[in-house]
Amino acid sequence: MSxxxxxxxxxxxxxxxxxxxxxNFTIVDTEVPRPGPGQLLVRNLEISVDPYMRGRMSAAKSYxxxxxxxxxxxxxxxxxxxxxxxxxxxxGDVVLHGLGWRTHAVVEAAHAARVDPEAAPLSTYLGVLGxxxxxxxxxxxxxxxxxxGDTVFVSGAAGAVGxxxxxxxxxxxxxxxxxxxxxxxxxxxxxxxLGFDVAFxxxxxxxxxxxxxxxxxGIDVYFDNVGGxxxxxxxxxxxxxxxxxxCGMISTYNATEPPAAPRNLTKVVGKRLTIRxxxxxxxxxxxxxxxxxxxxxxxxxxxxxxxxxxEGIRNAPxxxxxxxxxANTGKMLVRL
Length: 336
Known about the structure:
By secondary structure, this protein is an alpha/beta fold. 25% of the residues lie in helices and 26% in strands. It is built from nine helices and 15 strands.
């Protein structure tokens, strides 16, 4: 088969103020790059779009380097090696790497990890068996130190991370697992498909009111993907010595004003709460243990995962906007 001659890239056209729009992206056709020494040419097959990417579109200093205006964006991807200049990687190998948002990438071999397409679907290496799954595992078990019998509350529970958190909590012996989501269909999915004990639509009534009703005996663990009024509700309902793992605050990512909530931080003192933010990059030492425990659960169907798949690199910006608006259930992916 002849090698392709044209590659397509998604570049950051401008920095968004508030909610991003399609005007913040440009899609450019360019020549397929050539690998140099120590590099691989990879044709991407699946790319990931994730909430943290919204922060990288801004110039503000953060834990991740901002995307550069006019330059191609990047993120998790799985692809097939077309050319290799490195011993240990051959044409046809499938690799996981960090140069998504394009059809073809020149990847440093040191930053590529071979994956087995026979062992699990490629998409799982970007989701349930990849960064999002490890985020859920590390946050619940290492950061929040969940114990058997705990009542666990997960916000954004129908998303890629939250859906794994809730299921892992049940599998690890949580006494009660509560989830919030943004539609009645997602709430039904949490209860009927994923085994949450209780779930509620945060748009139907104030979160504190619904969480208090769902957790009559309080909560011991809160896995926070949302921030804002969800964090306020969790503080309000938390038991003494509850542990919070703060993974993300998607409710504030597009805000142009400081959030109104939480307004009850004084209760952190009296309740002796532990509130700890974390990044998955600090927990890669758990990856082997995570895969050993979670891969069999995925294979057996005990841990379910759902994906929302959008076809085509040119639809990646819209997929990203849809993900920020909560249109996805489970992991949002773009298939090339």
